[in-house]
Sequence to fold (865 residues):
Amino acid sequence: MSLTKQLWLAIALVMLIAFSGSLLVSSLSARAYLQEQLLLKNMDNAISLASTLSQMPKDEVTIELLIASQFDTGHYESIRLSDPAGNVIVERASELRHGGAPDWFTRIFALRTTPGIAQVQDGWKQYGTLTLTSHVRYAYRELWTSTVRLFAWFIVAAVLTGIAGTLLLRLILRPLDGIVQQAEAIGARRFITATEPATPEFRAVVRAMNALARRVRQMLEDESQRLEQLRREAHHDTVTGLLNRGHFMARLLTVLGREDEDARGALVIARLLDLNELNRKHGWPVMDALIRRFAKALEGMGPRDAEWVPGRLNGSDFALLAPGCDDAAELARRIQEALAMIAREFGLDEECRLPAAATIYRHGDQLGRVLARVDAALAIALEHGSDNVEVAPSEQGLGERERRVDLKVWHERFDHALNPNHVKLHSYPVVDASGRFLHNECVARMRLERTSEWLHAGDFVPWLARLGNLPRLDDMVVDLALDRLQRGADDICINLSAQAMNDAVLVHRMASKLGAAGEHASRLWIEVPEHGAFQHMERFRVLCALLKPLGCRIGIEHVGHQVSRIGQLHDLGIDYIKIDAAFVKAIDENQANQVFLRGLAMIAHSIGLSTLAEGVDSAAELRTLVEIGFDGATGPAITAMQGSEATLS
Amino acid sequence: MTVLACTAGMVFALALPGPDFERARQLALARYGADAAATVTRWIELIERAGPLSEREKLSTVNAFFNRHVGFEDDAVVWGVRDYWSTPLEALGRGQGDCEDYSIGKYVTLGLMGVPVERMRITYVRAEAGLPGSGISQAHMVLAYYATAQAEPLILDNLITDVRPASRRPDLHPVFGFNSEGLWLGGTIAPAAGDPTARLSRWRDVLRRMTLEGLN
Fold:
């Protein structure tokens, strides 16, 4: 029972005892007083009437009249005159017995009235005995009204005391709400800190819980740093800190399979020719310093919001994967110029030959084909001269002019295609460690005409992103998903783009849609990409605060590239993370990635997050993932296991 | 709590076996000295020996006893107040009293001897002073005894020593008679101490004081 309820009960009990006690005392003393007053009145009236009668002539009419007039004008129950032998001479009695109060009350507080008795004389002779009883109705009424009034006052007092007590209790216990919240959060493995309340007892509790939260956060911090270290050792070049060949290729491969705005972009490779010769001539330290500057330049190449990935493919090849970049030629030129400038700074501009080549990759491209295109372009560049830039041909437009044309075309296409009749959901199953269905991850499909082919998200989402129209698509996807859920579909997962997450209006609209969907919202899973979540942590926090209470589950996808920040997720209350396919590829053979993912899963579990793997290709990968503690997986192997891909219209 | 105590006290008082003469004697000794105590002792002996007497004899004895031992004096002289109703103990102790003190003394004494109260009336009378028909009257009080309800009463008066029937007292004109009947429950002649109403009338006041003196 809540404290407030207990308080009310206690007040009611105390008031009942106080009321019964004071009712008893006051009613009894009032009764005693009333009885006494009645007795005195009876006696006095009897004596004065008897005295008058004694002086009157004793004819029947006079006696009768006198008694009747006394009875009729006063408040009597009865007046009786009887002769010395006890025979009644005159009697007047009221039929009405009580009536001043309810019967049960008069039974409980019965007034014991004593009649007044006086002797009437006729000269020296006894004429009779006068017995007079006043009516008790008025006394009962008085007793009853005073009891009722007392009761009313007690009710008022009890209610006022209860209200005052409740307010006081609320004031006293206000810090407790915070404590309960914090305790519940910690129970759900969200290690939030709370402000310490003024009440010493509460302060001690909050201080202890804060200390716990701090220790857990410190531990998370340490663990994620250690994990980051591990990841760097496994995936990064030791000299430059850029991604090594193996992991760069894994990244490129997963990007080619993406169904989001990263599914289209540029790949640039620049080569420093004759590195061995230069090393010999100028020494390792100089050349390493030069190469490190190259790495810095590549890292600073991308716009702030985008997640461009630089890598060092081997000693002399530098690569930049630039999702979202459409002008490959311009990017290649910028890189070439930047690297040449650095060489000049080192005074090596004469000796350093820096050809560069680029291509545009798009959804559905084969990794080998993309690499072959760039290699071929690089060969042509070499032929044309040391500092040449060459752009590999592609089916798509490659330069700024083509991009403008494409944008215009897509803009017109979206004008009529971006509506619910032309958009549908396509789903991939996600299962837990034992193979049981968790949810269907849904991505959008779009057709440009009623009769045309359904386009893959990787084909049109990059253009929607460039036109800033992604929130509109995400909004539509939310509607489609909720519609499916309301028609009884199993759990559905939708991907929310960073653009949509940053759109406050859209996020609020989503909240009201989810609110309207009621319990169906609990079968909706919403995830945002890791890059977007960490880049816009505050927006992500708002999203979680708005949507989490509506029952849906929130997660982060493509996780792994920023593990050092994973500890920041501890107080958001999110439910799961999906690990990027780049770490999952061939996990059964990659010892370093196994160690990394094992640690990642452990940290995630310690703050209450499930870990799911993306892009699982084989049963062997799945086995390994389950072994190292993953809670679920998705990918081609899972889709195959679950039967043919289910399409939701 | 108080209410309960009162009730308990009343029950206790009602259950008391009878008058506490020893207490009355002690009080008389303490208040009025040895002479008064001797008078009171004689009075008590009178009551205790009255058992075998007839009611008529009791009347004469009591009438004579009070008329002998109490000298007539105005309340203003004895008590310093205009009107004071004394208890038998006070009247005998002082040896002085006025008409109502006689009447009360006789009434109580007869009551203690076992004469039923309903046969007695303390009666206010108008007494003609001087010769009959002279027209001069004074307020007076006597005790009337009714052998039966219809009987002519016998009058016990301090002005005349012997007990006479009312018809032989043409000088007295009755106004109003009363006794302690109907005043309180339980049949005792006086209420228990502590009943607040006892303070309210002279008659009841004297009865209350009597109880305190042990003459219940």
Remarks:
- Chain B has one domain: 2-212.
- Chain B touches chain A through 25 residues (CB under 8 Å).
- The CA atoms of residues 40 and 137 of chain B lie 34 Å apart.
